[in-house]
Amino acid sequence: MPSAVRSSRGVPRGSSALRFGRFAAMGAVAVLILIAGVWASWGTAQHVMLTKGRERGTVEVVRCAEDACEGPFRPLSPGSQPRARVVLDDTAAVERGGMYTVVLKPGGAEAVRSGPAGVLYAWVPLGGALLLASVVVAGGLLRTRLAWVMALAGAGLLTAAFVAL
């Protein structure tokens, strides 16, 4: 007859395979969330952080529609050409009449904000992913200290982006 010996956590000793399975599954979910956050952030962050060889300048916003603002581009980097109209994402906290430093995406008239505000805004999806993954780490992996570090890092990133914009 099998023994009913239990570990200090109240889990039967024979369930180490189940614990490993839970740890592997929850770890994979947390890693997947973080990879998705980096992937979503990198689409914009690469243009803001790796500016060598890219056109940099300023945009004075003259018109805003539902999801985008536009205005003339004045170059600041050598080799850049002035443009009559570039499009700037409206969700980047831009206002009509404001002047913003931007980096143009290659091959188009689409611009992203540069400087500290642009960098922080580009990494906002990673901040959200850190917050979401911290819940998985705390609940699924039972690693509360790591979860708190992840949550505070995500909240700090989101707060810094909010303040900078």
Describe what you observe in this structure:
This protein is α+β, with helices and mostly antiparallel strands and 165 residues long. The protein has helices at residues 16-49, 115-122, 124-140, 144-164, and strands at 56-60, 63-64, 68-75, 83-89, 99-104, 110-113. A five-stranded mixed β-barrel has the order 1-3-4-6-5. β3 (68-75) and β4 (83-89) form a beta hairpin. α1 packs antiparallel against α2, α2 crosses α4 (144-164) and α3 packs antiparallel against α4 (144-164).
Main sheet: strand order: 1-3-4-6-5
Total beta strands: 6
* Element string (H = helix, E = strand): HEEEEEEHHH
Low-confidence stretches: none
The end-to-end span amounts to 67 Å
Average of pLDDT: 87
How many helical elements?
4
| Alpha-beta classification | alpha+beta
How would you sum up the global shape?
elongated
Residues in helices, as a percent range: 40-55%
CA-based gyration radius: 23 Å
Major beta sheet summary? 5 strands, mixed, barrel
Fraction in beta strands: 15-25%
